[in-house]
Amino acid sequence: LTGCKSPSKIAAEKAGEKILEKAAGVKVDIDGEKMTVVGEDGTQMTMGGNEWPEDQMAKEIPKMGSGTVSYVLNSAEFCTIIINEVKEKDFEKYLTEVESAGFSAEKAEYSDDANSIYIAQNDKRISLQLNYEHKSEALSLAIVKESE
Predict the structure, then answer these.
(1) Tens-place pLDDT, residues 107-134
(2) Strand 105-111 relative to strand 78-84: parallel, antiparallel, unpaired?
(3) Which residue from 141, 20, 135 is spatially nearest to 72, judged by alpha carbons?
(4) Please, are residues 137 and 66 in contact by the beta-carbon 8 Å criterion?
């Protein structure tokens, strides 16, 4: 039962959902650190959480096998993930996986003592940007579906 939420936590989440739904005119589902917003047109965006998302735009990129996910923003059009505790060798391995997954068109790379940046696109017109901060061992990943 240690994984169950307390009644007060459930009540607080439900109250927060109602306030946000009324203010924004959207459906809101709060589940601990994760919030899902569904617009009137059915579009969905998920924010928060500390797990790698496996749906919407996140399904278009390889899953990072190391580090600790600290932030997620995921929708059908874009995805941002921040991963901490990523060693440089793990970033380099992930970069190889991303390129092998097809993110190699329109490629631009930059690296200095502070950052390594990789920008590319795949054949589905999905653009990806990786920014690895060497000192903090943090990887910021962003993908967006380009409009046609």
Answers:
(1) 999 999 999 999 999 999 999 999 999 9
(2) unpaired
(3) 141
(4) no
